[in-house]
Every structure is written in C-alpha cells, then in structure tokens.
Design brief:
166 residues, alpha+beta, Alpha-Beta Plaits, five-stranded antiparallel sheet, 5 helices, elongated
Length: 166
C-alpha cells in the first residue's frame, strides 16, 4: 500500500494557460511576465508567436489594426485565469485592455487549434482563374426546364381513382 507522501508526489498537476497580448511583446515585457508568474513555479514558457495584423483581432474586438502575441505558459501551482490576469496587469505593467488570459484547454481555443491544423493539411488552390464546377442537379429554370415542363403538360395528368367505401 502506498503512503500519503507517495500519493501526493504522484498527483502533481500542471496548469496550462495561454496569454494573448495585443501588440508585439518586447524582451523586457517577456522578462516581466516571467517574473510576475515566477511565484506560480513556471515549468514551461513558450516563445511568443505573433499573428498577422488584423482589423479586429479575435479576442480584442475593441482594438483595431493590431497583431496579437501569444505565449503558452505551464505552471506548477494552481491558479485561475482572473488571478493571473491581475498579476500581469499589476506587476508586469501590461495594460488590461491589451491582455487576455485563458486556459489552454478551453473549448474555443481547442476548436481554433483544430481548425488551424485542418487548414494546414489542406493544399491551398487559388480559385480566381478556375471555371465554375459543373453541377449535376436538375435544372429548376431556363430553356431545358421549360421544355421538360411543357412535355409533361402535353402528356396530360394521369387519371386518379378514388377508392369508394362499401
């Protein structure tokens, strides 16, 4: 039978967060983020990934024409999104209007990641120079449809027999 100490060491959890900053993170800002989250025992911190400039960035609807820097952080000490956001605004000096902190396993984030993977797997093909694809549907307008409708009218309607009650 395992002792309590063994159970405690085996139950070590990692808490993953995604930090999004509207703008480009400088080296000094990254150092301040690392310092502010140091008390949560940082296990892993990725280099910032930067998205292209967008008119309305995904998580920053009030900002215009900005790029978003994304940093994934894994900490050993449990915390919440709100607490980490407050730590970063107070101690790292990052403005709250330009900062979003979310769990890395948040359903919307997972869906975005899967959509990006699907886009990466598909080969991009420009459609501007290509012709429209042929449709195999029955026409519902035009000369061909009108001719088939007139042929049906010439044949007449089939006689309908109504069953009588005995």
């Amino acid at each position: 039978m395992k002792s309590f100490k063994q159970y405690l060491t085996e139950s070590k959890k990692e808490y993953k967060f995604r930090i999004k900053y509207a703008g480009t993170l400088t080296d000094s800002q990254i150092d301040r983020i690392e310092m502010a989250l140091g008390k949560y025992s940082i296990l892993d911190m990725s280099k910032p990934k930067t998205t292209p400039i967008q008119e309305h960035p995904m998580d920053f609807q009030t900002l215009k024409n900005s790029e978003v820097s994304i940093v994934d952080v894994t900490v050993d000490y449990p915390s919440t999104v709100q607490v980490l956001r407050n730590e970063l605004t107070e101690y790292a000096g990052i403005p709250g209007s330009h900062l979003v902190v979310i769990n890395a396993d948040h359903p919307e984030e997972v869906a975005r990641e899967e959509a990006l993977k699907e886009q990466d797997n598909e080969e991009y093909e420009a459609l501007l120079d290509s012709d429209f694809p042929e449709s195999k549907n029955d026409p519902s307008f035009g000369d061909e449809y009108n001719e088939s409708m007139l042929k049906e009218l010439e044949r007449g309607t089939p006689e309908i027999e109504i069953a009588k009650k005995d």
